[in-house]
């Protein structure tokens, strides 16, 4: 069974003139692989997936899978409808993902029993492992530790991305999880604290900008090099903060555009970053001395704010 650990990047979906920019996506994926990230997460909330058409989802996953054949790919499929989530699974299952990321159903505000029955049904409908995703700030509902631990006993449910921000809740999961069940931070700024407490890694937004830095920090934590990891994390804190000065992924796309990796274009209802966000990201990137790689030459986006 797949065991997720280390740094997984929640990939953005680059756009140009209203269409998915597959050339830019190619450059970004190769840059991630070259930087040594442990796994990739396309089609999550950072990817603006609710605004993607089915053919775009298929093309994105095909490209990521082809460029990263040896890197686990965890693809987002969750919706607020069991039928629609299973439809996404059926759509993407044949394309070779290693696991599916499934968010707590948003807007509906299910009970804990509703969450349990929903995820149980999803797991039973999938031939691939399931990663739970708890993010109350986006869904309006918090999945309690007791519900996560019940679900961890179901075959095929292998991990949780925990973005509740509730450290006590996450530590409760860590203390009682079954062997082989991964706990992944869903918030970059909590990765250090949670991995010191026993979490396995992070699904990161910041690693879109600095994949080598975030991957090195999680590797240091996995090998108990806490002093080194703490110094790395401290250097990354301005990036963590900058990534959320506006709704994710608005700031990270601004940063990627400053690196020449894609345009800052969003799909409505999200809008392009305001000028102050570009300036914040420019300052952070300069401070980190984040550079590109040979793969960057494949990207064609340039920020209009430069």
What's the structural blueprint in terms of helices and strands?
Blueprint: E1 6-10, E2 15-16, E3 19-20, H1 22-35, E4 39-41, H2 54-67, E5 74-76, H3 82-92, E6 99-103, H4 112-125, E7 130-134, H5 136-139, H6 145-151, E8 157-162, H7 167-176, E9 182-185, H8 191-196, E10 201-204, H9 211-222, H10 226-242, H11 250-258, H12 275-288
Helix pairs in contact: 1-2, 3-4, 4-6, 6-7, 9-10, 10-12, 11-12
Characterization of this structure:
The chain is of the alpha/beta class. 43% of the residues lie in helices and 13% in strands. It contains twelve helices and ten strands. The protein has an eight-stranded parallel sheet. It has a two-stranded antiparallel sheet with strand order 2-3. The longest helix is centred in the last third of the chain and has 17 residues, at 226-242.
Summarize the structure.
The protein is an alpha/beta fold. It is built from 12 helices and 10 strands. It has a single domain, classed as Aldolase class I (TIM Barrel), CATH 3.20.20.
Order of helices and strands: EEEHEHEHEHEHHEHEHEHHHH
Shape, per Cα inertia axes? globular
The share of residues in helices is 40-55%
Mean pLDDT, nearest integer? 94
- Spatial extent as radius of gyration: 18 Å
Biggest beta sheet attributes: 8 strands, parallel
The CATH topology turns out to be TIM Barrel
For the termini, the CA-CA separation is 46 Å
* Level-2 CATH architecture: Alpha-Beta Barrel
For this structure, what is the CATH homologous superfamily?
A: Aldolase class I
Counting DSSP H or I runs of 4 or more residues, the number of helices is 12
Unreliable stretches, pLDDT < 50, 5 or more residues?
A: 292-306
């Amino acid at each position: 069974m797949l065991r997720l650990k280390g740094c997984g990047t929640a990939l953005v979906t680059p756009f140009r003139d209203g269409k998915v920019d597959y050339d830019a996506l190619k450059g970004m994926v190769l840059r991630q692989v070259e930087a040594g990230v442990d796994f990739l997460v396309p089609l999550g909330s950072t990817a603006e997936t609710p605004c993607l058409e089915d053919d775009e989802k298929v093309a994105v996953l095909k490209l990521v899978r082809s460029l990263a054949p040896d890197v686990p790919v965890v693809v987002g499929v969750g919706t607020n409808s069991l039928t629609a989530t299973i439809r996404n699974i059926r759509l993407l299952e044949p394309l070779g993902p290693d696991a599916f990321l499934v968010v707590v159903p948003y807007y509906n505000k299910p009970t804990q029993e509703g969450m349990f029955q929903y995820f149980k049904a999803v797991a039973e409908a999938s031939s691939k492992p399931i990663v739970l995703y708890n993010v109350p700030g986006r869904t309006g509902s918090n999945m309690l530790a007791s519900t996560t631990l019940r679900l961890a006993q179901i075959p095929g449910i292998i991990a949780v991305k925990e973005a509740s921000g509730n450290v006590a809740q996450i530590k409760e999961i860590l203390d009682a999880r079954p062997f082989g069940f991964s706990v992944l931070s869903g918030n970059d700024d909590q990765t250090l604290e949670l991995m010191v407490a026993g979490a396995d890694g992070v699904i990161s937004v910041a690693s879109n900008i600095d994949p080598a830095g975030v991957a090195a920090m999680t590797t240091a934590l996995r090998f108990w090099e806490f002093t080194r990891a703490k110094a790395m994390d401290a250097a990354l804190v301005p990036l963590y903060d900058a990534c959320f000065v506006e709704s994710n992924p608005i700031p990270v796309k601004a940063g990627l555009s400053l690196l020449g990796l894609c345009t800052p274009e969003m799909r409505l209802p999200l809008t392009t970053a305001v000028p102050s966000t570009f300036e914040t990201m420019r300052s952070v990137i300069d401070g980190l001395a984040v550079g590109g790689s040979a793969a960057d030459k494949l990207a064609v986006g340039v920020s209009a704010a430069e």
